[in-house]
């Protein structure tokens, strides 16, 4: 062993762990070499087989050609698998494991050493590293040294943890090792949280807390609702839960069976590497607008949602608020219940000498009440066709089901969803609540109510592929949107958000509304914030005053309030801050303003002098460095430093403004600066 390794041994308190890591590294090197040899061998076989088929194509009979093509496909699959194994081994080599627990099963003498990492590692039929998602690894997150247990496939295994250690291994080198009878994760957590930010959200497998672990490993509840304060790791937990479910149900569930509804493309890009980092395929992302486009194609158009912070139309705002409550959904249900009894007026269907009585048609209509109305008519048309066919003893010409359906459609009082939707507001005696901004074009607030009625009238394209749906930022979506989603995706769901971070002042929905829509769901609250320092989160809590908010014990600089005489003075002081940031070791700085138009204006001012990013509704990527963004677009993101501009009394004075300011403040990890001109907002501590 060389001098450098001997010196390293002296700095790590557990020399046995350095020796163990050296052993693991050697076995990894052997496995990598074997896999690399396998890849080269398969590649050689593939090239030779391909060459043989090319050289003798004219001489091979069809059967031999077919057999050779099958062999090529098999070689290709084998090669792809070998490359996948090699890639995984290289990731393990970089950081083989992050924890060790020693477990003594009840009534057993043997103490088992269990090393836990991102992936399992099997060498010569010996399991050397356990996947963090394995049942036995759950004890690392759930227990300190002492009595412990875990749920194995054969049942619950009881025993005791006799040792618990945690490591940081980078590029195959052990950087530190910690051991304690109390929660050693606190120390590791402090180290991780003190790091600078990155362009992508990182996995948290080495710092998952007990309550988070319980959510991640929950496989019993069909739906989980997570209400979590800013910085509590809600999204990360949801993604790790997906990784766990993909591991736990690998024969039933794949990445193509899961999708996430995220607020915007920037946020989608920010979280895009978490699952690949955990060894899983990335999952498909959707927005509520994407879903509407798919469902309403060739039916009706709609306009995108307006920015509520920059739209001064009070009538539009009133219409949006009216459609944002659970009461609105209940009214639609009452309307549908009533209209289903009166919309269709059965009459005798007569075709030449053949008759289907009105009573028969009515009876069939209500027998199919679980189907959309138009689908019911199709089924009735089939029934009438079979009735005519079976009873046609005189040989009369029998109409085709399509012809019968045309006759049944004439018995409908209203022929389209848009007619039904207009009638709904007349039924409410609130016709002014429905406005078409252009011909055959819906306002955004009408899109999901329209879809809800369309589901009852004609039906929607339900997803048979998606088996688990993640809905992030639940507070930004209305009950009627959730009601439609439940019809489109009748599957397991993980729903998360924070109702203290409501971004739309025209949405009046509450967490209780969500719970009502999912009365069989498990509801979990996360109250500890990990993103920001103690000083920043305490400052944020003085703005929003959340009783349950618990700051993590990681200390830093006190938030700085800077008085500016005027706009020019504010710009001068901002540029001084930017200069300090550029000279620092920090990776990201977020300049947050109230609206998207303010963000674009400031970006134009600073662009000539700075390498700077604008995060707008049109953006698709999150990048480190200096970013300018609105509060709306900053949600879910985090920055090492944050500067919030224009925090004046006129800009932040209502209860809604309080929520906006809380969102902006809680984007910050380490250093917060707030600037104001003349009179500060009264929400500032």
The largest pleated sheet is described as:
7 strands, mixed
Portion of residues within helices: 40-55%
Q: Which overall shape is indicated by the principal axes computed on the Cα atoms?
A: globular
Tell me the Rg in angstroms.
31 Å
Q: Total helix count?
A: 24
Q: How many β-strands, per DSSP?
A: 25
Q: Which stretches are low in confidence, meaning pLDDT under 50 for 5 or more residues running?
A: 1-10
Can you tell me about this structure?
This protein has 685 residues and is α/β, with parallel strands linked by helices. Helices cover 44% and strands 19% of the residues. The protein contains 24 helices and 25 strands. The strands form six sheets. Strands 1, 2, 3, 4, 5, 6 and 7 form a seven-stranded mixed sheet that branches. Strands 10-9-15-16-8-17 form a six-stranded parallel sheet, with helices on both faces. Helix 16 crosses helix 17 (444-457) and helix 20 (534-544) runs antiparallel to helix 24 (655-665). The chain is globular. Mean pLDDT is 90; it is low at 1-10.
How are the elements arranged and paired?
Elements lengths: L2 H9 L3 H41 L6 H33 L4 E7 L5 E7 L3 E3 L2 E6 L6 H5 L3 E7 L2 E16 L2 E7 L5 H9 L16 H7 L6 E6 L5 H15 L9 E4 L3 H6 L3 H4 L6 E3 L1 H9 L4 E2 L11 H9 L3 H17 L6 E3 L2 E3 L1 H10 L5 H19 L9 H9 L7 H12 L12 E2 L1 H14 L10 E4 L7 H10 L3 E6 L13 H7 L4 E5 L1 E2 L4 H11 L5 E2 L8 E5 L2 H16 L5 E6 L2 H11 L5 E4 L9 E6 H4 L4 E6 L10 H11 L2 E10 L8
Parallel strand pairs: 2-4, 8-16, 8-17, 9-10, 9-15, 11-14, 15-16, 18-19, 20-25, 21-23, 21-24, 22-23, 24-25
Antiparallel strand pairs: 1-2, 1-6, 3-4, 5-6, 6-7, 12-13
Helix pairs in contact: 2-3, 6-7, 14-15, 16-17, 17-18, 20-24
